[in-house]
Structures are given as structure tokens and as C-alpha cells.
Amino acid sequence: MVLLARSRWPSFALVAFLTTSTNASSATETSKNADVRVLASGQGAPWGVATDGTYVYWTNFTSPGSIMRVLAEGGSAALIAKSTQPARLALGNGYVFWSDASAGTVARTPVAGGAATILASGQKRPARVAVDSTSVYWTTENGGTVMKVSIQGGTVTELASDQAMPTGLAVSGGYVYWGTALGGRIRKIPVGGGAIVTLAEHQGLPQDMAVDGSHVYWANMVGGIKKVSVAGGPVTTLASWQGVPRGLAIDDTHVYWANELGGTVMKVSKNGGVVAKIAKGQKKPFGVAVDGKRVFWAANGDGNVMSARK
User: Fold this and answer.
1) CA nearest 197: which of 215, 185, 207?
2) Which of 131, 179, 195, 196 is the most buried (most CB within 10 A)?
3) 3-state secondary structure at position 85
4) CA 171, 183, 271: angle at the middle one, nearest 5?
5) CATH number of 2-309
6) pLDDT tens string 164-174
């Protein structure tokens, strides 16, 4: 294994309430509930969700678990692969990549299914996963690391270590981005390794994140939906005090997330403004993904995979 960077553990404050931020607006919630559909039911604790626009993919976070898919417009759910306890997943280069929290592995299989290939083993509870054209990246919750390996397999590289419970993960523009739940930092490092850059700190338990060409967006378990420039600077609040937001996705204009408490799926403009409720009455909604027309999520509490018009 190759080691590229180390960083000191940040403070172990569980929740960091104070942040240098600017409010985008005093947004008012509106209700939408547009064409909410059940795409798959009877699933085993569905967790991570991804879409390629044609299919929706998800992990069943049971033990043993599975990776599944269904047509985005609905149909019969199909088994892609079996795994000990799959957590998060990502799509790229014709493959589904996923982390297995219990087995300590990162694996891939063709999007249509087939034999699974183990790309990394011996990982300490791998969690979030991201992929670009050459590599797959992941965090280890118990190891405090950000890792990578070629999508073809090979030498596993440690990009960053001593991270205080690394959480949300994204890759864009030659950088890997992640958060640290303890200490509330939003960070990045070049995909080839180098110095760690802290873009924001004192966030309230940052979780899932996404990146576009200009900003990093993330969900604070305490404190709502935030963004900051990929170059750093003031943190902007897009939506304040959500109900334990889980899962986050973006398109060209909006940020989408699910609130575990309250059972809602929400969206807000990337520029801030009115916070819109897409769906309500969901049981523990978790992972979120979007395509050009719809938003998808896992209703972990009742074993459903759902969709609605954006």
C-alpha cells in the first residue's frame, strides 16, 4: 500500500455549531408531492442509490446483502451481485462499484450483472465510494482514511490518513473531496496525492456531498444544507436546520436530499431560495440520486426504492 499524505486528528467535539457562513435566503418550505412512485418493494434495508438515467441501482444493507437495479421508469427489480453487507455504491466505466462494510472490501461488477471483482480487501469499514475515469475512491470509517485503487485493480493507495471519521465523498476536476464528521471539516486533495486543503471547518457533522465545477455541496446532520467554493471561502447556507439529512445529489440547477426525521425529500436552488418538498411520508429516506427528469431515493424503513418528478 502506498501512503501519500497524513493529517493530524481534529478536535473530538461531536457537534460544531459555529460556522462562518452567509444565508442564501430565509427560504420558505413548499409542498410538492409530484408523481411519487414505488419502483421496488420488499427490499432489505435499501441504502446507497445511484442512477445512470436508464436504471436505478441500490444496495441492500442486510447481511447477507445485495446490489440491485430496476428500470428508472419502473419494472422488475434484478439482482446485480451478492455481497456480505454492501453500503454505498457508485457508477462509472460500465461498472457498479460498492463498499462492503462488514467484509472490508471494495468491489465492482458490470452494470448488467456478472462476476464480482474484489478491488481492495482488509479495509476498516469502507463507506462512501466515488469513481472517475481511472480510479475508485472510498473512505474508511474505522480507519480514518481516504483510499483509491485503479478501476482495473492493483496497488491500493492511501491518499489521506488520520481523518476524524471521514464521511461524504466526491471526485471532480482532479480532486477528491470529503468531510470529517468529528471536527466538521470539508477537505480536498489532488487525485494523485499531495497536500490536504481544508475548505471549511466547524460544520455540524457533515455527511453526504456532491461537487460541480464551482462548488462543494454537503448536508450537515446538524445545521442544514451548505456550499462552499472549490477554492474555499465563506460557507453559504442553502437550507437551514433540516431533519437529519441523509443522501445528497445535484443537477445543473438544484440540490436534492432526504430528511430521515420527518420522512421528506427536498430540493433547493444552488443559488438558494425557496426550499421545496418533493415527497413526504417516507420511512427513513436515505440515499438520493437524480437524472434529467426524476429524483430517486431509498425508503430504508419500509424496504422501498422510490422516485418522483423533480
Assistant:
1) 185
2) 179
3) coil
4) 55
5) 2.120.10.30
6) 999 999 999 99
